[in-house]
Every structure is written in structure tokens, then in C-alpha cells.
Model the fold of this input.
Amino acid sequence: MVDREKTAGLMQAAAGEEIEGRSLWQDAWLRLKRNRAAMVSAMILGVITLLVIFAPFLSPYEYDGADWDNISIPPSIETGHIFGTDMVGRDLFVRTLYGGRVSLMVGVVATLVSLLIGITYGAIAGYLGGRVDNIMMRIVDILYAMPFMFFVILLMVLFGRNIVLIFVAIGAINWLDMARIVRGQTLSLKHKEFIEAAEACGVGTLTIIRRHIVPNLLGVVVVYVTLTIPQVILVESFLSFLGLGVQEPATSWGALVNEGAADMEVAPWSLIFPALFLATTLFCFNFIGDGLRDALDPKDR
Amino acid sequence: MLAYAFRRFLGAWPTLLLIITLAFFLIRVAPGGPFDTDKMLPPEVQANLDKKYHLDEPLWMQYGRYLWDVAHGDFGPSFQYKDYSVTELIGAGFPVSLRLGLSAIALALVVGVTFGTLAALRQNSRLDYTVMALSMTGISIPNFVMAPLMLLVFAVYLHWLPAGGWNDGALPNMILPVIALALPQIAYISRLTRGSMIEVLRSNYIRTARAKGLPERVVLMRHALKPGLLPVVSYLGPATAGIITGSVVIEQIFGIPGIGRYFVQGALNRDYTLVMGVVIFYGVLIIVFNFIVDLVYGLLDPRVRY
Done:
């Protein structure tokens, strides 16, 4: 693949034509393609995502409907319950995938929330600098030392367990890291010539942040997002495992692992399948994140 | 150094105050209260209750009173465990949790540093790849997934170890929970150690030490390990937070009577004062530990300016 491109480039050069330059993103893509762990992870993750979105439609069973003739049966093809059923006869294949929908959705949405807050906060602090930056980052420092997991639990206890609150609470925790990273990058971008040029042209502060700073942060942001999603999925699973997250009959991987752990002596399959899906997904995200970091930041090797 | 310690000490207070303040006001705005009943209480009874718990005072006075009580280690009575104060419950659970947590940290440090160093010494060897793959597994499999799986294999199928319970911290009862709690930290610490050791081993003074003809063991122990472990020392702060968070689920899974278990039970039963007390206690614990880690780091690394 690469070799063919090289030869093509050489032939072009020989013909006296101009070689097209590769952008940072094309470069990164080429490097990422060579990272086998990351590519395989991306494929597995793609399959899981497709399964999670479409497979519940294909199965004859409902995630909250019981099959009274087949209560707590092991996985088998004949009955159609390929992951078996749980203690009240619900099909575990459908439940695992349905739970995956919830887990992945929480992961993506909460990450977007933290992204939005983090980028805005970090870019403003970094670009304005001086005293504003000082105060804004001191606030982040203070918040950083808080035991947030326990505050989320406290929130769940006080205001009941609803999924929107989980989104907001998790998103609100994770923006701190994002803000720090974005601020650091902004500081180094601030004195580049193109920013100076924009300032000289009289472009407003907010427009500079939106049009010139933020697009240049995307590389770091992309890496960070792939590493944040698994963290968020983990937090949600943690809460659901404790019985403080998603509530019955809705479910998520954490809640399923919790149920499975309770029944594991008589029905180990109800623990193993959700655990497998959860661990595989976290695995894939971590590998992709690592691969992207190597691809986008070759200095770090 | 003393001035630095003092500054860090002062810096810890805003966080602590924020934790207590947030907890206090969250409870006050929460719907429903511990004294809500289906029947309307006669106004005199309501007034007496309010008076007893100082709910008739203005909010700022209640806040001041709460701060005062917390400063004296008084978190109020538990609503769920009648006749016990929250402070007593925390006092009962803390030795158990502390023992579990310290064992896990010790195990994580020893195993993580050893694996990380070995991997760094043989970079890109099969050993290195194995350690890194294992570490990825440790990071990706959360401990509330690992713990039940370990129970299933070692307690239910093989009958090697008891399937839970504390038994006053007897060794067989400790093994599984401590390993489950330490695994993610082992993973992080070995990654960190590997990364920084690779960098250190490439540096000039290591080459000098080797050129002097020092045996490899001395180069490693005397010259490489100390700077190589600095990132691990600064990771100890987050590691503690991780262990505390993890202990909540681990104590729940293994039925260990520590603070985490009270916390979860309190959370599920809406025992406001217990949950709040534990949150503040954990907050203090994490802050104190971060403070100690910062001081130790300052002592170890001469480049840190006070």
C-alpha cells in the first residue's frame, strides 16, 4: 500500500509534476492504518455498535418481556436464547445488546457534554491569559481535588435515579481534564503568526477562539475523546452496578453484571456475557485511543 | 520547605470547605426529608421536631452549626441505623477499610513497579509485550467485573478460597478482595514505571554509571530507580482515590464490613446523614493523602521549587 504510493510519487516527480503534500490528517491516517491493534479494535467496536443498534430488532424477544417456559436456561440454539435467559425468563442476548445501547449512549453523550464545557472553558482561559486564566484554573484545581464519584452518588441518592442526571453528572466531572489539556494547547497556539494576523485584522476575541483556536485543537481533542468514552462507560457501569444508575426494566452493562454476579452460582452465563461485552468495548476504546495518540503525535513514541 | 508545606496546607482548605458546603446545600434542596410521613404531623409536633434539629433557624445559622459540628467530628445521627451516630459507623468501618486499602496499595506498588521495571529493561521483548498486554487488560476490565469472575472461579468452582465475608481479616478472606482492588492500580503503575524507566535508562548519567563499570544491579537500584519512580509517587494521589472508590464495590461484592459497604447501604436507603458524612470523610482522606504525596514528592525531587 505504502510502497505503491511511494512509487507513484516518484513517478510523478520524475514526470516533472508537483507532488501533492500530505496534510496532518492524511499522515495520521496512514500511521493509524499500520497499527494493527487499533484497526482490529475499531472493527470490533464497529460490529458491537451495529449489533447494539440493530440486533434487538431482529430477535423475537423483548428486553423486558419474560419467556415463561424458559426461565434461567443456559445458552442454546434450539430455544432461540443464544445467551440464555435470566432468573425471570428474559432473553439475555436482547438484554445485553439493549444494555449496550444504554452504556454506549451514556458514554458518547456524557463525553460530548464534557467536551463542550471543557473546550469552551479551556480555550477562554488559555486565550485570555493573565488574571482571568489564573482564577479559572485555580477553580479547576479546587474542583479537581473533590471526590466526584461520591458526589454523583450523593446526587443519585437525593434526586432519584434518572438517566438525564447521570449524563449531566458524569459530563460535569470529566470536563476538568479536557479544560486543562485545551488550555495548555491554547497557550502554545496563542503566539503563532496566524493568530497575530487575525488580531491585526481586528477579528473579535470570540471569533478568534471559535475560528482559529478550536479547529487547531482537534487532534488532542479526538485522542482525548476516545479515552474519555470508556471512562464514562465505566462510571455509568459502576453506578448501575451499585443499583444507583439505570433502573429496571431498563438496563445497562453495569446493571447486568450486577444481576449476573448475584446469580452466578446457578447461572454463570448471566454474568459472563455482559462482562465480556463491557470488557471488550473498554478494551477497544483504549486501544484506539492509544493508536490515535501515536498517530497524531509521532514525537511521543 | 516549611513555607511550601504551609502553603499547600492552606491550599487544601478551599476544597474541603467546598465539599462540605456542596453537601450541605444539596441536602437542603433535595426533595423529601427524613421526617416526611404520610400523615400530616400536628403543628406542635412539627415545631418541636424542627426545634430539636434546629430546622427553625435561618439557613446560614444551620450552615454555621453544621460546619461547627463537622469540625468537631460530629456528622449527626444515622437515620437508618437507629441508635448509632454516623461518626460511630465510620469509626467501626474504617479499620477494616484501611487494612483492605493499604494491603491493596502495597501489593499494587510492589507488583506494578517490578513488572514495569522488567518491561523497561527488556524493551520490545516478548516479556515487555506480555506485561503491556496484561496491563491493558487490567485497565480495561473494571474491578466490579473482575471480582465476581474471580469469585466464580476460585470460590465457586475450585473451592480454594472463601466466597466472601471478612472473618476479622483472616488471610484467605483477604486474598481475593485485595487482588481485585489492586489489579487496575497494578496496571497503571506498571505502565507508568515502564514509561519513565525507559526514559531514565537512556539518560546520560546512566551511561556514565555503566561506563564506570558499576554492576547492572547497582546502576538500577542506586541510580535509575529513584528518578524512575517519581511519576509513580505522584500517581499515588489518584491511586488512593481509585482504591477508595474501588473499595466501595469490592466491600459490597465480598460482604466486607467497611465504610464502603455502609456507604452503599446508606445510599440505597436514602440515609442522608450517613452518605454525607462518608462523602466528607472520603474527601478529607483524599485531601490529606494528596498533601502527604506532594510533600514526599518535594522531598524526593530536588528540581521541585518551593
Summary: Chain A touches chain B through 40 residues (CB under 8 Å). DSSP finds eleven helices and no strands in chain A.
